Amino acid sequence: xxxxxxPGPLLGAGRSADVYALGxxxxxxxxxxxxxVAAEARLMRYLAASGFPVPEVYDADGQDIVMERLDGPDLLxxxxxxxxxxxxxxxxxxxxxxxxxxxxxxxxxxxxxxPGGTVxxxxxxxxxxxxxxxxxxxxxxxxxxxxxxxxxSGPAGADVAVxxxxxxTAETDLVSRRxxxxxxxxxxxxxxxFLAAAADSPWPHIAAAARLRLTNVNTRPSEAAxxxxxxxxxESAGRPAPAG
Length: 244
Hints:
It is a single chain. The chain has helices at 38-49, 75-81, 86-100, 156-169, 183-197, 206-214, 221-237, and strands at residues 10-13, 17-23, 26-31, 57-61, 64-68, 113-114, 117-118, 125-127, 136-139, 142-145, 152-154. By secondary structure, it is α+β, with helices and mostly antiparallel strands. The protein folds into two domains: 10-68, Phosphorylase Kinase, domain 1 (2-Layer Sandwich); 75-237, Transferase(Phosphotransferase) domain 1 (Transferase(Phosphotransferase), domain 1, Orthogonal Bundle), CATH 1.10.510.10. The chain has a five-stranded antiparallel beta sheet with strand order 1-2-3-5-4, with helices on one face. It has a two-stranded antiparallel ribbon with strand order 6-7. A two-stranded antiparallel sheet has the order 8-11. Helix 4 (156-169) crosses helix 6 and helix 6 (206-214) packs antiparallel against helix 7 (221-237). The model is unreliable at 240-244 (pLDDT under 50).
């Protein structure tokens, strides 16, 4: 593991990793699942060199990665605090997708594959595959995208499709309690704004993206039920269809 000494206070916990303070403007992200973070670190350095906003990486080994500490709320938390900014935040997320999908995948970044081969078909841009509001930090230098462990090479529209499905089907336990009664309206408004501003259409990839999300170990049973309905509806219709 990186030579970080004893990690400081726990700053946050996601579904698969914990983030600890290290001091000197750094944090330790430690995965709770078996994983080698070397590929994630390489990609983040490649994206930084391409001008895309990611945290600076200082060290990476095994399940531990030492990165720049980002001060500021994530996009999801800021929606909870300032729901009147929801359209602006939807455009911010779409802009990050649009910028990312202008970057060609580096050599060695794998595609998403399944038993039948490549899941999403032709495409050679960087796909984050988890680029939703909770993975965007609002910092003094602007929005910064975190959590690159799932990134793959593929078509831009597939990345938009995965983001759409996460935002459509995810449980709302990370949302501020005071806005939970409005979550349905806010979610719908945010997704409409996001899709309107995204440069690439998700619909050709909806069924495949839903099937992919079903294989994610972090997908909860209630979320899986929604994803399965979306996949089956798109497949039975013989054409891509949005969830509703």
